[in-house]
């Protein structure tokens, strides 16, 4: 029963995306570092009566992440959709961070997504279908968020590379760019944002976008080719 794998299942976007896909009857695999987080999100999915797997792994630990993804595939098959939602968000200006701090941010924001894609996307391509989505942000770089700006630029490049290599095999790679602070009951409500992920997953192939923008203004075009 192929379903959805959500990497980075916090109480905001990750949880909302899991709910959105569970509403469609899809098996859900939740991957996160924290056991309590996994339990809380899984409990919130109980009303949907779908199979749920909870797996602990740090997105920066390739061995642990690979093992969790392999277990997800063993449990439910190659997923229809994988969402990479892990991120390290912090304010920093030019020259403030050490090399180690920059590498830590890059590893969470980009390399973890790359490793997840490397484990899942070739199998999706072999099947001839699949969706790989990454939570993005920063439509424009901001000097007060240097490491995050660099990371989100890296995400766009990763999506482009995946599309170039696997798009013709039926894999839709895209990012969801969230241009504002996520909070329930606002223009950046996580449940509203989760609709962007579902829309990308269900887009007809001839209309595939590489990026969906959530900027809190539903009167404006929200998709970027």
Short overview:
The chain is α/β, with parallel strands linked by helices and 225 residues long. Helices cover 44% and strands 18% of the residues.
- Structural class designation: alpha/beta
- CATH fold-level label: Rossmann fold
Categorize the overall geometry.
globular
CATH class: Alpha Beta
What proportion strand? 15-25%
Q: What is the arithmetic mean of pLDDT?
A: 93
Unreliable residue runs = 219-225
Distance between the termini: 31 Å
Count of individual helical segments: 6
Element string (H = helix, E = strand): EHEHEHEHEHEHEE
The biggest sheet, with number of strands, parallel, antiparallel or mixed sense and barrel status, is:
8 strands, mixed
Helix content: 40-55%
Number of strands: 8
Estimate nothing, just give the exact number of structural domains: 1
CATH superfamily placement: NAD(P)-binding Rossmann-like Domain
CATH architecture: 3-Layer(aba) Sandwich
Index terms:
single chain; 225 residues; alpha/beta; Rossmann fold; 8-stranded mixed beta sheet; 44% helix; globular
């Amino acid at each position: 029963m192929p379903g959805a794998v959500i990497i980075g299942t916090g109480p905001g976007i990750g949880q909302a995306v899991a709910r959105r896909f569970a509403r469609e009857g899809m098996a859900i695999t939740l991957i996160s570092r924290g056991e309590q987080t996994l339990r809380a999100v899984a409990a919130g999915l109980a009303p949907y009566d779908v199979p749920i797997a909870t797996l602990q792994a740090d997105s920066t630990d390739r061995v642990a992440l690979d093992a969790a993804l392999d277990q997800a595939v063993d449990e439910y098959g190659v997923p229809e959709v994988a969402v990479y939602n892990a991120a390290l968000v912090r304010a920093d200006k030019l020259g403030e961070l050490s090399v180690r701090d920059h590498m830590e941010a890059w590893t969470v924001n980009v390399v973890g997504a790359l490793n997840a894609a490397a484990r899942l996307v070739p199998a999706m391509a072999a099947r001839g279908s699949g969706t790989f989505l990454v939570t993005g942000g920063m439509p424009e770089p901001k000097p007060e968020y240097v490491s995050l700006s660099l990371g989100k630029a890296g995400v766009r490049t990763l999506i482009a590379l995946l599309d170039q290599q696997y798009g013709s095999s039926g894999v839709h790679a895209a990012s969801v760019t969230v241009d504002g602070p996520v909070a329930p009951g606002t223009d950046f409500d996580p449940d509203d944002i989760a609709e962007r992920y579902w829309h990308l997953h269900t887009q007809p192939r001839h209309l595939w976008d590489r990026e969906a923008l959530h900027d809190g203004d539903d009167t404006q075009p929200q998709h970027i080719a």
